[in-house]
Amino acid sequence: MTTETHPSGETHRPLQPVREFRMAFTSTPRGARLARRLASQRLDAWGHPYESDLNTTVTLIVAELAANAVTHGRVPGRDFRLCLWLDQAAGLVRVEVTDTRGDRMPPESPSLPAERDAESGRGLCLVSALASRWAVVPRTDGGPGKTLRAEVDI
Fold first, then answer.
1. Among 122, 144, 148, which Cα is nearest to 75's?
2. Measured in whole angstroms, how far is the alpha carbon of residue 13 from the centre of its chain?
3. DSSP code of 105?
4. Rounded to the nearest 5°, which phi and psi values hold at 144?
5. pTM recorded for the entire structure
6. Alpha carbon separation from 87 to 18, 40, 57 (Å, rounded)
7. In the chain, N or C: fewer CB atoms in 10 Å?
């Protein structure tokens, strides 16, 4: 049986083919930053080191989706959620960022801003370029808002 060993030497539950991380964050730049850092840390703990292409790619996707949730999906007093799945058997990592604002939907096919010096408008283009697949789906719990889902093939 394969077990997961914590850096302190403690032994944890057996390794599982599907790993999952879920957490709610405040809809602030600080919350988006924390989501990015924790996603990178979790991937490292799951065996994909910080310097690996997968960790870098998924961290960039989390950063962009979290920034979009804070910038465009923010509702005062409500958090956004990050769900991160690693499915070794299927060979993919799925990132889902859920906000509570359903009236502002992202474009189906993102395009670069008309002005080269524009400060925003590139996030979903980056996600589209990095992810194997991405989509906007209704919230799974039936609440207000939307979920942006991106998958990266391992």
1. 144
2. 25
3. P
4. -70, 150
5. 0.79
6. 4, 16, 16
7. N
